[in-house]
């Protein structure tokens, strides 16, 4: 599995984690914010990889 594929899988896992963590909590709840930030970090890495791949052809 390529690194991009691994990131896509991780993004899906973290996305579901945010959804599950959000249940019964406000968006500003520290647990929801932490889960969302973790997802954001992985999304940033994914975007960087796509940009590098596009630059390299």
TrEMBL record:
Alphabetical list of Pfam families matching this protein: SpoOE-like
GO molecular function list: protein dimerization activity
GO biological process, one term: regulation of sporulation
Name this protein carries in UniProt: Spo0E like sporulation regulatory protein
Organism of origin: Desulfosporosinus hippei DSM 8344
